[in-house]
Amino acid sequence: MADLSQRxxxxxxxxxxxxxxxxxxxxxxxxxxxxVGFLAxxxxxxxxxxxxxxxxxxxxxxxxxxMAIGAFLATKSQREFFHSEIEQEKWEIxxxxxxxxxxxREIYGDMGFTRPEQEMIVxxxxxxxxxxxxxxxxxxxxxxxxHLDEPLQVGLIMGLSFLAGALPPILxxxxxxxxxxxxxxxxxxxxxxxxxxxxxxxxxxKTHPLRSGLETTFLxxxxxxxxxxxxxxxxxxx
Length: 238
Description:
Elements: H1 2-18, H2 21-43, H3 49-95, H4 97-110, H5 115-125, H6 129-139, H7 151-170, H8 172-175, H9 179-200, H10 202-205, H11 209-237
Helix pairs in contact: 2-3, 2-7, 2-9, 2-11, 3-6, 3-7, 4-5, 7-9, 9-11
């Protein structure tokens, strides 16, 4: 029993950490796709690699800052909303305790508990306001304290992930003088990087590495193709 309890707590500790994969994958994919699309667009209209490199670096820095600030503000807004819901729940516990007790009965009634079992749970949960608040947060609001993300942390993860994703596409322009050769090397590096990211994330998702790698690669290629097409259209008609 002790081993099972310890395992349960370890899994609970790891779960919030694993949720960062959302920001990591989103940031890296966005950094790679937008950078490839941008480089493809400017390569068709600018002939000197150093100007393309400068423009690409400016796009990468601006994109990373934008993604970090956007993630920070979105997470902060979500956290503020959750806190307002919790404060409303605190008010209801203080002012309408019987209503809260009835909600507990309904929750467990829907789960198939008998009326005596419901009353036993109600008596136990309502005996302590802290327990009642924690119960209502989880069962009624679906909120867990460990799922309240830190806005600054999420912003940093998103910004750094964007930079990590934008690095492979722009690296060839540091070493290759011909921009038209560099863009093809960029595309090759991006495809390999996408596959690597897809395989690497399976350490957390526990899915099939090859399937995950191919999925990430094909979706990334599709997005890059759209970006390249838009850049080509802009260069032709604008």
